[in-house]
Design a protein that fits this description.
heterodimer; A: about 80 residues; mainly alpha; 4 helices; B: about 190 residues; Rna Polymerase Sigma Factor, Chain: A; Arc Repressor Mutant, subunit A; 9 helices; binds zinc ion
Chain lengths: ~80, ~190
């Protein structure tokens, strides 16, 4: 509704963390950042790139293979004798 | 005899494991091994070291489960042990020291050079070249930054929990997170810009 009093620059958008994992999403600063992002193609590209980087990294998951699992249990003295 | 196929909570399993129940302990291991292994891999950057770290982590768990306090989360504890183990290995293996450039605050203020990659993450994972580029970028991150970035952005923990695990203050977590993100972005951006 009301335009926020706080003015932010692109650098501040880049510096300041107000994302969906974060806190204080409704602080005046974060609201101003949100407004800025909506109107600034550079910042929205920037944040988009960050998101994509994180998505990529998240996809780096291995299954724990049976080999790895049984070596682990052996190491722990919990070797599998399913009962 | 306890029926393990019923949904025992983690807290109940921990209590059983404390009283020496091996099956409960195995179940706890099974519940957390994938997270521990992948987190260790993301921090250690090496499959063998990740497996070794996972083994050490669960060995510590077996040894000290008796003292495990009911009001802390097991995952928090596991992340902490993995982080410490990987940092120890990294420090004794000092090839990481020539990496940084994120102490330079200006590094990420070049908004104009940002490239918007018109590639969906699904496509990207199919592309070995991009995978390699990303991998190299992550490799260059100092482990201390990699840990913060991984805990908060990849594992999705809160800033507070990340701070607890790493022993850092909330502002320190935020500043490291930001530099790690910016560093990765800059690395990828430079590589992907044509
Ligand atoms: Zn901007």
């Amino acid at each position: 509704m009301e335009n926020s009093q706080v003015k932010v620059t692109c650098s501040e958008v880049v510096r300041h963390i107000c994302d969906n994992l974060g806190e204080q999403l409704n602080s005046p600063k974060c609201l101003a950042i949100k407004e800025h992002i909506a109107e600034c193609p550079d910042c929205s590209k920037y944040l988009n790139s960050v998101e994509k980087t994180i998505d990529l990294y998240r996809q780096y998951n291995f299954e724990v293979t049976d080999d790895v699992h049984s070596r682990l249990l052996d190491k722990l003295g919990l070797g599998e004798k399913e009962d | 005899m306890i029926n393990f196929s019923s949904n025992l909570s983690e807290t109940e399993l921990i209590e059983l494991a404390k009283s020496g129940d091996r099956k409960a302990l195995s179940l706890l291991v099974r519940m957390h091994e994938k997270t521990v292994f992948n987190f260790a891999f993301k921090i250690c950057r090496d499959r063998d070291r990740a497996e070794n770290t996972m083994q050490e982590t669960f060995m510590s768990l077996v040894k000290s489960i008796g003292q495990f306090s009911g009001n802390s989360k097991l995952s928090t504890w596991l992340y902490t042990v993995v982080s410490n183990h990987c940092l120890m290995m990294a420090r004794s293996n000092r090839k990481y020291s020539e990496t940084s450039s994120y102490d330079d605050d200006e590094v990420y203020i070049d908004e104009k050079s940002v490239v918007d990659w018109d590639v969906s993450p699904e496509k990207i994972t199919e592309n070995n070249e991009l995978k390699r580029i990303l991998d190299e970028a992550i490799q260059k991150l100092d482990p201390e930054y990699r840990i913060v970035f991984t805990l908060r952005d990849v594992e999705g923990l809160s800033t507070e929990e990340t701070g607890k695990i790493t022993g850092l203050s909330v502002p320190a977590v935020k500043s490291r997170l930001h530099r790690a993100r910016a560093f990765l972005r800059r690395e990828l951006n430079g590589k992907l810009a044509s």
